[in-house]
Amino acid sequence: MTNAQLISQDPGWIIALKGLIIFAACVFLTIMSVWGERRIVARMQQRSGPNRVGKFGLLQALVDGVKLALKEDLIPKAADRIVFVIAPIISTTACFMAFAVIPMTGPVNFFGQQTAMQLTDLSVGVLYVLAIASVGVYGIVLAGWSSGSTYPLLGGLRSSAQVISYEVAMGLSLVAVFIYAGSMSTSEIVAAQDQWWYAVVLFPSFVIYAISMVGETNRAPFDLAEAEGELVGGFHTEYSSLKFALFFLSEYVNIIAVSALATTLFLGGYRALPGLGFTEQWLGGWFTLVWFFVKVLAFFFVFVWLRGTLPRLRYDQFMKFGWKVLIPFSLVWILVVATLRVMSQQNAPQALIFAFVFTVALLYLAVTSLIDRQKTKLAEAAKIIDTTQPSFPVPAIPTSRAEQLNG
User: Fold this and answer.
1) What global pTM score does this model have?
2) Of 12, 37, 75, 170, which has the maximum CB count within 10 A?
3) Which structural domain range is residue 246 located in?
């Protein structure tokens, strides 16, 4: 039976229990992610990282949560109190809701009931995740607006523009997956990757999604919505105590959510690595949960790696890259994938498919060469210096030590 058929037979108590387990897993992963990020970045920078609270500093994130809970909860006088309180709740809730359609295991025995670790299986599951991610940005925008302060407002506006830009590229990168899988259901997309992962078959889509998900989560080098250099703390500048903790929680849960979606769409989901398919039956099918979280944590390590190595981009560079590079390339790639898919389904000759790919490659090289030549001409034009004499007197530059002292 498929995941969708198994889930449709779940009684209410199993649905509630699975929801509670997923919520607890997300909170636990957040605590461990904070600890892991500090330890990894500390190792990259030759520091120790948290090592005092608990063995290897494992309780540091938990202690930080208690500290935030005990801090004074302040609300600015100029803030809209209702929206100010609701904003972090919106962001956090949206992040948790994204896990409703993520398949974490195949068929397993759950308290005597045959099911799968997935709350529901929608026919448009991926679109549901994208919609929830779009709603999550409202929490950031409303937090910046309701604070009644300039810097949070600028951070909220930046975030809205950033998410719009990179969600377009993210959505376009998934179109190729829909074309190959023939479905928008997350479980069916995982089932369609039984031979080859889409990270291999659709490598350009995978790269575009990987870049877009970093921009979507406001992480370095795209953390421009909370750039402390020019915006103090960005949209959450005026937040403290548990409200700030909710934003902190939503950021890390969002990282795990986009990593889980990337795992589902491009890395075969809960399926084992190539050549290790026999392990999927271990522990009655529960070992697939290990494979799922290994892939998710690999994505999380990349997030931390980027934060520890890359500097923050300028805002104009960030927006230019999204609109002028990722989106146009995504559109061209969709046309190529759709054409190749139709040709393969109609049993087109291999020579014709090869000729099409070769033609597209030549066009790409020609356009790239043309753009490079244009950039070279602009750079050479910028080097031309106006050598005309100024209309005002300019003192002579001293040429000797004596002239410098006398001058």
Assistant:
1) 0.85
2) 170
3) 3-330
